[in-house]
Amino acid sequence: MKNGEVLECRKDPLIIELAEALKVLSEPNRLRIICYLSGSEACVCDVERELHISQQLTSHHLNALKNAGFLRVRKDGTSSYYSIDTENLKGVNETFCKYVDYRKVKPGKRQSCEC
Q1: Could you tell me if 28 and 65 are in contact, meaning their C-beta atoms sit under 8 angstroms apart?
Q2: Angle at alpha carbon of residue 27, lines to 26 and 32, rounded to 5°
Q3: Three state DSSP letters for the chain
Q4: Which CATH number fits the domain that encloses residue 57?
Q5: d(CA 11, CA 78)
Q6: Are 64 and 25 contacting, i.e. CB atoms less than 8 angstroms apart?
Q7: Angle, CA of 33, 52 and 59, to the nearest 5°
Q8: Residue 8 pLDDT
Q9: Which sign, positive or negative, has the C-alpha torsion 62, 68, 74, 75?
Q10: What range defines the domain where residue 15 resides?
Q11: How deeply is 21 buried, as exposed, middle or buried, from its count of CB atoms within 10 A (0-12, 13-18, 19+)?
Q12: Domain membership flag for residue 106
């Protein structure tokens, strides 16, 4: 890195958004929910049954994912159907790949250390 040059990731506000999104996704049941819903929308009881977790815990995780923008909710009578918000997930994925893509890692040593 040349003198005065600033890392793009240091000044990009999307890094903070990515960190917050990764915090939400760091819970294994939430990742399982995203995986399950990638097949199609589902109601709370379907998610609960598939993941073998309580209704209360299922609702908690679905709400956390919804509040973080990962899920959409469709009401039908007394039932709520959850599906993935693909635009939000796409944005998180693009930011992740922009800064944490293994294909962009440059192997080797730095030429010099300025400390």
Answers
A1: no
A2: 105
A3: CCCCCCCHHHHCCHHHHHHHHHHHHCCHHHHHHHHHHCCCCEEHHHHHHHHCCCHHHHHHHHHHHHHCCCEEEEEECCEEEEEECHHHHHHHHHHHHHHHCHHHCCCCCCCCCCC
A4: 1.10.10.10
A5: 45
A6: no
A7: 55
A8: 78
A9: positive
A10: 11-99
A11: buried
A12: no
pLDDT on residue 106: 76
Average pLDDT over residues 17-22: 94
Say how many domains are in the chain.
Answer: 1
* pLDDT given at position 4: 47
Q: Per DSSP, what are the bridge partners of residue 71?
A: 84
Residue 68, domain member (yes or no): yes
Whether 108 is in a domain gets the answer no
What does the pLDDT look like over 43-90, one tens digit per residue?
999 999 999 999 999 999 999 999 999 999 999 999 999 999 999 999
Residue 15 belongs to a domain:
yes
